[in-house]
Amino acid sequence: MNIQQQIANIKESLPSHVRLVAVSKTKPATAIQEAYDGGHRCFGENKVQELVEKQEILPKDIEWHFIGHLQTNKVKYMAAFVDTIHAVDSLKLLKEINKQAKKHNRTIRCLLQFHIATESSKFGMDKDEAQALLSHPDLATLHHVDIVGVMGMATFTNENIYGYVRRLRDSCRRRQHYGTHRQYYFWAQVVSV
Questions:
Q1: % of the chain beyond a pLDDT of 70
Q2: Which DSSP helix (H) or strand (E) runs through 93?
Q3: Per-residue pLDDT tens for 25-69?
Q4: Is 74 helix (H, G, I), strand (E, B) or coil?
Q5: Is residue 78 part of a domain?
Q6: Residue 31: what pLDDT?
Q7: What pLDDT does residue 40 have?
Q8: Do 48 and 102 reside in the same domain of the chain?
Q9: Which domain holds residue 123?
Q10: For residues 47 and 68, is the Cβ–Cβ distance under 8 A?
Q11: One domain for residues 152 and 94
Q12: Which residue from 87, 99, 156, 159 is spatially nearest to 125, judged by alpha carbons?
């Protein structure tokens, strides 16, 4: 089964409100082009250098998502084109995304990353850290980022991790700075590794 058929089969199995981000990390640009030729436009990468290299040679209407841990000094390399950053784990990173997006006169969508895994090697905030970020007065000055949801990365588990992430999302939703120019669209994402 080719890439186009695989993506079509996955999309058919998803509810209509779910959007597929095809994780293209470590895959060659030719494989992404094949998926693109089949109509898919949304791809996720976890390494900034690989993302930049692929963005330079692939069609410009691809919606790129950054799905890995992101260091503040790497934001500038993708700020001109990245649509969504899935792993914002600090106010410092959010401020840098805003700063770099402003240079390109654009807004970058962001997901707050929660630490829900049992292993210490995973990144993310706990609930109190996220609420402190969402309550911070500087958040209202960040006009070039939109916090659109939450994500968490967990090991395979029998626990109801999806319910936990939904509760985190709902808690964040209640803490938003209403009355600003932003519109908030929240979703929950859990990646099992």
A1: 75
A2: helix 91-103
A3: 889 999 999 999 999 999 999 999 999 999 999 999 999 999 989
A4: helix
A5: no
A6: 93
A7: 93
A8: no
A9: 85-193
A10: yes
A11: yes
A12: 87
